[in-house]
Amino acid sequence: MAAMGAMAAMGTLPAGAGALPPLPTLGVPGVPELKPLTRYEAMRLGPGWSHSCHAMLYAPNPGMLFGRIPLRYAVLMQMRFDGLLGFPGGFVDRRYWSLEDGLNRVLGLGLGCVRLTEADYLCSHLTEGPHRVVAHFYARQLTLEELHTIEISAVHSRDHGLEVMGMVRVPLYTQKDRMGGLPNFLGNSFVGTAKFQLLFALKILNMVPEEKLAEAVAATQKPKKLATDQAAGVTGNLPAAKPANELAVPAKTGNELADRAENQAAVQAAVEAAEQPVAGLESGAIAEQLAAVPAAEAVEQPAGLGADAVVEQPVAEPME
C-alpha cells in the first residue's frame, strides 16, 4: 500500500514542481519494458491519446496447497470473450468521465460490487503499437472474504458469459518441477499490457520476490527455445532425399518377358518330344541324343527351336 500511495502522490504533482524521482521499472529479463509516466503526465496527453483503466484485486491468502505450498495471495484476473487473460476494466472516454468514474462504470458491468478511488492508482504506461494508448493500472487489497464475495457477484453481473467468461485466480507459487504454478500461468496468452501489469504489480507490491519472477518468466521461455532447437536439429540431420531414379526399380520390358516365355515353351516342347517314341528309331538312341544336349544350350535356344528341331530330324527308313 505504501508503494501505491507514493505513486498516487506523484501523479497529482502540479505543473512546475521539482524533478520527480525515477519511476520504477519492471526489470525482468525476457519482458519488454513499457515507458512509465506519472498520472499528471498522462492527464496532459493530447486528445489523440486513448486511456484504458484496469484494476487488480487481491487479498492475502494463508492457505496451503497440498498442505505444504503457501498460496500467499489470491489475485483476480478474467478470462475474456476472445480467449485472452486480462484484468477487469476497459477504455474510458475522457470527454465524459474521470479515470476512476470510467473505471468504476466498467467494473460495475463485470464485477458488480466494487468501487475504486484515486488512492488505488498504481501506475501508467505508454503502450507499444500503432495505437496511441496510455494504460492506467489500479490495485486494491481486500480481505479474502471480500474477494470471494466479488467472485460470487461476478457470476451474476451483466457481462458474465458474454464479454467475461469467468474469474480466475493467479497461482503465485512455483512447484518443484519449476513449471507448475506461476510459470505455467505466464505461458498463457494475455491481452495488451495485462501480462506486464501483472508482473509489475507483483514486484512493486512485494507480493513475489523479483528473482522468483525472473525464474518464472525464464521457465516459460525454455520450452519454446528447446522446441526451436530440436526442430532445427531434426531438420539439419535429415538425410538428403534420394533421387527418384535411385528409388525406382527398373521394370522389365515387354520384349524381355516375351522372349523368356518363348524360351521356356521351347524347352518344355523338347522334353515332351524326348518322351515320345519316334518311328523307325530305337528309343534308347533318341534318349542318348537328347541327353547329349546340355540343358543350358536348350534354354538359350532362340524362339522357334526345340520341338520343331526334333521333328525336322530325318527319319531312318525301317530295316527289313
Task: Give your account of this protein's structure.
The chain has 320 residues and is an alpha+beta fold. Strands 1, 2, 3, 4, 5, 6, 7 and 8 form an 8-stranded mixed beta sheet that branches. Strand 2 and strand 3 form a beta hairpin. The longest helix is centred in the last third of the chain and has 28 residues. It is elongated. It starts with a helix and ends in a 9-residue tail after the last helix. The N terminus and C terminus are likely disordered.
Biggest sheet descriptor: 8 strands, mixed
Average predicted confidence as pLDDT: 76
Order of helices and strands: HEHEEEEHEEHEHHHHHHHH
Class from helix and strand fractions: alpha+beta
- State the total count of DSSP E strands: 8
Strand content: 15-25%
Amount of helix: 40-55%
Low-confidence stretches: 1-10, 12-18, 240-253, 276-287, 290-320
Tally of individual helices: 12
Shape: elongated
Give structural attributes.
320 residues; single chain; disordered C terminus; alpha+beta; 8 strands; elongated; 41% helix; eight-stranded mixed sheet
Offer a concise description of the structure:
The chain has 320 residues and is α+β, with helices and mostly antiparallel strands. It has helices at residues 2-11, 39-43, 99-110, 144-155, 182-186, 194-204, 210-237, 244-247, 254-275, 283-292, 295-300, 307-311; strands spanning 35-37, 50-65, 69-80, 85-86, 89-92, 121-126, 133-141, 164-169. Strands 1, 2, 3, 4, 5, 6, 7 and 8 form an 8-stranded mixed β-sheet that branches.
